[in-house]
User: Fold this.
Amino acid sequence: MAKLRREDVLKLAQLAQLSLTNDEIDKYVIELSDILDYVEQLQKVDTTNLKPTNQVTGLTNVFRKDEIKGYGYEAKTLLSNVPELEGNQIKVKRILE
Assistant:
């Protein structure tokens, strides 16, 4: 059974750059100890005849080929209403300094 001490929680808080109250420290001593107990319990489970599982929903990726589609418009036509162009790109004011 893994039992964390108050000093362990303080060290973890220091590493995570957290400032904890005394009540929070006491709370996390209990909660983190419970988590470690559960991990120990999981490590005891016999998994020798089980296949590794990395996807449980049965879904697979569906890919399609990239196809160029013509929509009947040319870039010049679409950019005709733009206030300012630079090459074939819309020129806008700089927003970052």
Observations:
- The radius of gyration is 29 Å.
- The chain has three helices and two strands.
- The chain has a mean pLDDT of 90.
